Each structure stands twice: as C-alpha cells, then as structure tokens.
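Hi L.,

As promised, Extradiol ring-cleavage dioxygenase LigAB LigA subunit:
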Amino acid sequence: MVQEKKRTKGIFDGVAAREGYALNKLMFSLNSEQNRKEFLKNREAYCDQYALTNEQREAVLSGDRVRLVDVGANMYFGIKLVRTYRRANML
C-alpha cells in the first residue's frame, strides 16, 4: 500500500505542486497583459475559469502572499499576482 505524502506548508514539493496546480496556472496566466486586464476587470469571473479551492480563491482575491503559499502557490507565480495588484494600486 502506497501512503500519500502530507504537504508541509512553505515547502514547494511534488505534493504542493499537485495541490496548487490550478492556482499556479491562474497566476502564470498573468504573464499576458491581456489576461491581467481581464483579471482586473472581473477577478471573480477570472477565478471561475480555474478549478480553485475556496481557500485558493480567497487567497487570490485578497492578494495575501503568505496565504497564497499556504494554499499551494509557487512564490515565483505568486509574485505575478502581487505585481498585478500593485500596478493597479490595489495593494
């Protein structure tokens, strides 16, 4: 029997990568200027395009960096989200 590894908060390993896939996919999409505009236009609708957990969705909408990492964000991609908010003077 194979045991499932438990995720350690703050450690970005294979478990975190699987759990944070949709979240990181959303944040990676913000590399595109058009996607950033769409995100800022309607953040909730943009989040609906990805299979986020409720915790992930709340972290994205709040822009809380620590919370993003706690719910599976790769910090490299998290910075994309934070920069998007800062450029829009939302943080």
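The longest helix spans residues 75-87.

Thanks again for sending the construct details.

K.
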